[in-house]
Amino acid sequence: MTFLMQDDLFGATPPHLQPPEKANAKAPARRAGIQPVVWDEALHALARRLPPQLRLGTSSWSYPGWQGLVWEGAHSEPTLAKKGLPVYAQHPLLRTVSIDRSFYRPLSASDYLRYAEQVPADFRFVVKAPSLVTDALVRSEDGQGRAPNPAFLDPLLATQEFVAPALAGLGARTGALVFQLSPLPWQQLERLPVVLERLRAMLQTQPPLTAPDAVLAVEVRDPTWLAPAHLPHFADVLRSTGATYCLGLHARMPPLQAQLPLLRLLWPGPLVCRWNLHPANGPHGYEDAQKRYAPYDRIHDPEPQLLAELARVIAGTTGRGQRAYVTISNHAEGCAPLTVRRLAEQIVARLD
């Protein structure tokens, strides 16, 4: 029966109008600050039909090109970074967001608290762990590895610099805390079982997740982690520590279908997914994607098949009462808010 449930998991799921202006009336003054777009009723209706345990969102929120999609008027990136989150969180479909700046520099509990105070109680954050503990190499400013990182997968640093301050600051708004492990040097890939046991030791020592919807997740950037020789070991590490796998839709990784065996081994459990980079840009293509897609105001490279497959996984997970956190980058199709809407439509169609 367990195998039936696992196989079926990813299959079919069970079930303002203003009064007419007077001839000489003055135009209303433009409201100060960042204001949300007036979203159409179809978007609100779509949001109401999504499973309550599903939280869709984007990677960060400070994009001027989202004018007319998320907020009114033109605003600079620094202004949106400081003041855009409360408006973002009013969007009917956007119930989570990925905080990515934490990857480059650890954030304090007060940093996280400032984020938490700007969003509704039902909002949840997806947060990336600092590269201090998730990168096996110390890198130069251009990203080249210079030397082994002695803090890689350090249990104490993972707690002090990530898990503890995130839980303290975000509180009940904590969603998925993601350890995104950077590509490993070949010496460590050849000794992946040793790295897996270091990962186990780090995950085992993390404090209890006091937030009701919090989950630890591990994302990788090397296909070797999912090879048949290592998949059972990887699954055992995650299962034994109460963590889960973050489905990484990235040009460096195998397609979604090739990552599902690990999710099946971890079933039942929550889904964490980060859709990061369209394969057309190559495995190192963030700069290329930025040039092609900026200002991120439309879809450039649609992925209808991937949308359908991901909707199937989400519907299968939430249809059985499990939580799902799915964040999408502008580098996925060109405009994350539009991709979120396209994905939501696919999910609702499958649930219907």
Which descriptors apply to this entry?
352 residues; 38% helix; eight-stranded parallel β-barrel; TIM Barrel; single chain; UPF0759_sf; two-stranded antiparallel sheet; alpha/beta; DUF72
Explain what this protein looks like in three dimensions.
The protein is α/β, with parallel strands linked by helices and 352 residues long. The chain has one domain (34-351): Protein of unknown function UPF0759 (TIM Barrel). 38% of the residues lie in helices and 15% in strands. The protein is built from 15 helices and ten strands. It has helices at 2-8, 41-48, 77-83, 85-88, 109-116, 131-134, 155-170, 186-189, 192-204, 231-241, 256-265, 286-293, 304-318, 330-333, 336-351, and strands at residues 54-59, 94-99, 124-128, 137-139, 145-148, 174-181, 215-220, 244-249, 271-275, 324-328. The strands form two sheets. Strands 1-2-3-6-7-8-9-10 form an eight-stranded parallel beta barrel, surrounded by five helices. A two-stranded antiparallel ribbon has the order 4-5. Helix 5 (109-116) links the parallel strand 2 and strand 3. Helix 5 (109-116) runs parallel beside helix 7 and helix 9 packs parallel to helix 10 (231-241). The longest helix is centred in the middle third of the chain and has 16 residues, at 155-170. It is globular and about 55 Å long. The two termini are 25 Å apart. Mean pLDDT is 90; it is low at 1-8 and 10-29. Residues 1-29 are annotated as: Disordered. InterPro entries: DUF72 (IPR002763), UPF0759_sf (IPR036520).
